[in-house]
Amino acid sequence: MCKASRVLLIACCCGKPHSTRNLDAFILPLFFALQIWTRELLQSDSTFDKALLVCIELHTQLHDLVKNNNSPTIYQELLSLITNKNSKYRPVNNFSSIAWNIWHITRIEDAVSNILINNTKQILTEEILNKINVSVTDTGNAFTASDVDVFSEKFNFKELIKYRKKVGTNTVAVLHKLTVLDRNRKPTREQLNRLIQENVVTSSPESIGLVDFWSKKTISGLLTMPITRHQIVHINDCYKLVEKYKKNKSNN
């Protein structure tokens, strides 16, 4: 990877989010700058391999896959702030909880990396569902606020985090397998149909609309959205929910 991208990534790591103020003002702009650069690199066969390396580095920031106590990833910093109580918290005027956010981005990553990119089995199994203590298998796009509350109250946080780690580890392996021949490839109709058959989406317009949205994406497009950009947006929301929970607790 080039020196410029390494410097930016180190800056992301050393920014120590701990608050939405730091994330919004410092880390997110750097992350999005790298993401824009990745998108530019993906537009050419000659820079595709470099784009993959940057994408993998960005993806690492969104997971708990490597241990470095001196420079934890953005997601690892978030994990250090999450408790069983604040993971379930949903502010009155908010749609989401930390639990929903993590489920949402993890289910989407699992489906996109394994169904649409690699055309293989998803990581999610009946056993994992039972351990997480949920019955839904979709991405949660069509959830209502009450659905979020029910999901957040019942789920097993530790098992959800384990599932996310498995998905992240698997995605890295999928990304390493890609070649320049995959750059402009789009998901096949068979792959898109699997999203419905395997209950990644529901019949609700807010959910099934993902099939049409992803059908227009090349592999390059899926790498930028949702594998990287989509996830950082929801992780940022989690940081905000941590702070809202603190504020709510101090006011009561």
What is the gist of this entry?
This protein is mainly alpha-helical and 252 residues long. It is built from 13 helices and no strands. The N terminus is likely disordered.
SSE inventory with pairings:
Elements: H1 3-14, H2 20-41, H3 48-61, H4 74-79, H5 84-88, H6 98-117, H7 126-132, H8 145-154, H9 157-177, H10 189-197, H11 205-215, H12 219-224, H13 229-251
Overview of the structural elements:
This protein has one domain. The chain has 252 residues and is mainly alpha-helical. The termini are far apart. Helix 3 packs antiparallel against helix 9. It contains 13 helices and no strands.
Order of helices and strands: HHHHHHHHHHHHH
Q: Alpha-carbon distance between the termini?
A: 49 Å
Overall pLDDT: 89
Number of strands: 0
β-strand percent reads under 5%
Low-confidence stretches: 1-5
- The number of helical runs is 13
Largest sheet: none
How many distinct domains? 1
Structural class: mainly alpha
Cα Rg: 18 Å
- C-alpha geometry: globular
> Helical content, roughly?
55-70%
Which short descriptors sum up this protein?
252 residues, mainly alpha, 13 helices, 66% helix, 0% strand, globular, disordered N terminus
